[in-house]
Automatic annotation (TrEMBL):
<dbReference type="InterPro" id="IPR006035">
    <property type="entry name" value="Ureohydrolase"/>
</dbReference>
<keyword id="KW-0464">Manganese</keyword>
<dbReference type="GO" id="GO:0005634">
    <property type="term" value="C:nucleus"/>
</dbReference>
<keyword id="KW-0378">Hydrolase</keyword>
<dbReference type="InterPro" id="IPR023696">
    <property type="entry name" value="Ureohydrolase_dom_sf"/>
</dbReference>
<comment type="similarity">
    <text>Belongs to the arginase family.</text>
</comment>
<dbReference type="Pfam" id="PF00491">
    <property type="entry name" value="Arginase"/>
</dbReference>
<keyword id="KW-0479">Metal-binding</keyword>
<feature type="binding site">
    <location>
        <position position="165"/>
    </location>
    <ligand>
        <name>Mn(2+)</name>
    </ligand>
</feature>
<dbReference type="GO" id="GO:0005829">
    <property type="term" value="C:cytosol"/>
</dbReference>
<feature type="binding site">
    <location>
        <position position="268"/>
    </location>
    <ligand>
        <name>Mn(2+)</name>
    </ligand>
</feature>
<feature type="binding site">
    <location>
        <position position="266"/>
    </location>
    <ligand>
        <name>Mn(2+)</name>
    </ligand>
</feature>
<dbReference type="GO" id="GO:0006525">
    <property type="term" value="P:arginine metabolic process"/>
</dbReference>
<feature type="binding site">
    <location>
        <position position="138"/>
    </location>
    <ligand>
        <name>Mn(2+)</name>
    </ligand>
</feature>
<protein>
    <recommendedName>
        <fullName>Arginase</fullName>
        <ecNumber>3.5.3.1</ecNumber>
    </recommendedName>
</protein>
<dbReference type="GO" id="GO:0030145">
    <property type="term" value="F:manganese ion binding"/>
</dbReference>
<dbReference type="GO" id="GO:0000050">
    <property type="term" value="P:urea cycle"/>
</dbReference>
Amino acid sequence: MKKYLINSPSSRSYTQRVFRQVHPADIPFPSFLKSPKTCSVFGVPMVYGQPNHGTDYGPQMLRKFGLRGELEELGWTVRDNGDIAIDPPHENDPKPDSLLSGKTKNCYNVGKVCQAVHELTFYAASEGNFALTLGGDHSIGAGTVAGILKARPNTGVIWVDAHADINTPELSTSGNMHGMPVAFLTRLVEPTLFPGWDWLESTPPLHPAQLVYIGLRDVDPAERKILKDLGITCFTMQHVDRYGIAGVMERTFDQLYGRPLHCSYDIDAVDPLHAPSTGTAVRGGLTFREAHYLVEAVSGTGQLGSLDMVEVNPGLGSESENKETVEMALALIDSAMGSRIL
């Protein structure tokens, strides 16, 4: 427990001083957001979509390290709605068909949390606010994207992740729900077959043409087939090497041109050298500058209306590793919200 309670910095570290100058850039403001620009913040301390304790401390740590103050320095009016209450799974929770129950761990619990997240993000987006969701594990992406699509059906989704998160229950080898949100969103999974997920039927499905992956480098064989069969645009780390991150972003915007944008950013997309405290770290990820350029470019389109920052896990590393990961996540949020060096 002690290692979760890392101290917030009393003065900026070298990394913060050099790379986290909170300086609002003159970038276009999305026409679908209201003025003055308002950011609705939701903490979702979700831990039941995967096996590691600690993701529930992510929202707390991001706030402790100064999230609100930095957003306000960037000119945002901040409505911090706190953390949603999450009840633990119970033995008597409804379960899917017996053949699938072991393949969807905590299915009902995860589904009900995602339902609450979908309602909150839908409300924020419908009011014309920027929706910023702090995770928690990436299972909550099913809720955020569903809520955004319900409010802005034409939204393009940029899924930044080392993993595709598009396993179906039948194909999953772990049964962990944080590996399935995109399968639910694209309706590869029939929501009514899974207790706690009926609400998803009232939201628009995510069409493959609306989705772009960036940063993939650990994809299951079954997921590879799904991605190819659906024709989903995927930029792996090999593509980042080949085109450079600027080339990847240009190709991303070519596909999603004219759409409002939602960015779902799993911190494990970043190389563990810069963000070690996450549950499924994979070497060979985005460098510090690649990770920042990505969100700077998305922000610079003037079309970004919502953002998830997930899988920050202060329960996995040393105090210095936890601090580095939280600082990295916060710096990425700053860049997405308009911070620039000059």
